[in-house]
Write a structure and sequence with these properties.
By secondary structure, this protein is an alpha+beta fold. It is about 20% helix and about 40% strand. It contains two helices and eight strands; from the N terminus they run ααββββββββ. The strands form two sheets. A four-stranded antiparallel beta sheet has the order 1-2-3-4. A four-stranded antiparallel beta sheet has the order 5-6-7-8, with no helix packed on it. The longest helix has 28 residues. The protein is extended, with a radius of gyration of 20 Å. It starts with a helix and ends with a strand. The N terminus is likely disordered.
């Protein structure tokens, strides 16, 4: 892994705190409408210890894979496709910062084939089927003339042709949509 660990860990912590604040504010909004979310669900009574505490060893991350896994902040399985969308925290969360990918499983014990969809703020899965997922993407924009940040929503169709015997595709396309 070529990135220094400290900045990645700091960005991950920042992204988690932003997500926690957003979840808390969304939970407050949902509680006024009568809906229950994870943020507003009633808490159970704390557990009572029934034995001695056992120390947990610090994880050894000799190849950087744990840092990479820890920076994953979102996963969405795509219906009937053996695929998943996932996002990692990074960059400036005020100006995008969710590096978004689609990954296809190759075989048991195999690797994932991964395609980068972009650096955005967030996405919503509108629908999915074999070889296709429709997304509403929220992203930051930059007005080159004024240097001001803005934001926009755009809809896209992410499509692919499943590989031989249900294997991963050899390519993925993103098409603007309405």
């Amino acid at each position: 892994m070529s990135r220094p660990v400290a900045p990645v860990v700091g960005l991950f912590a920042l992204a988690l705190s932003v997500c926690a604040c957003q979840a808390a504010s969304e939970g407050a909004a949902n509680s006024t409408s009568g809906e229950t979310s994870a943020a507003t669900a009633p808490q159970n009574a704390p557990l009572t210890a029934s034995g001695a505490a056992e120390p947990v060893p610090l994880a050894v991350d000799s190849d950087g894979s744990l840092i990479s896994a820890a920076s994953v902040v979102r996963i969405d399985w795509v219906a009937e496709s053996g695929a998943k969308l996932f996002g990692t925290a990074g960059g400036d969360p005020a100006a995008n910062g969710l590096y978004t990918y689609i990954a296809f499983f190759t075989e048991p014990g195999g690797e994932w084939v991964i395609y980068e969809l972009g650096n955005i703020i967030d996405y919503t899965v509108l629908s999915s089927s074999v070889g296709r997922v429709d997304l509403d993407i929220h992203e930051s924009t930059l007005n080159e003339a004024t240097g001001e940040l803005g934001s926009r929503h755009r809809k896209v169709i992410v499509s692919w042709t499943p590989g031989v015997d249900g294997g991963p595709p050899t390519g993925v396309a993103v098409t603007p949509a309405e």
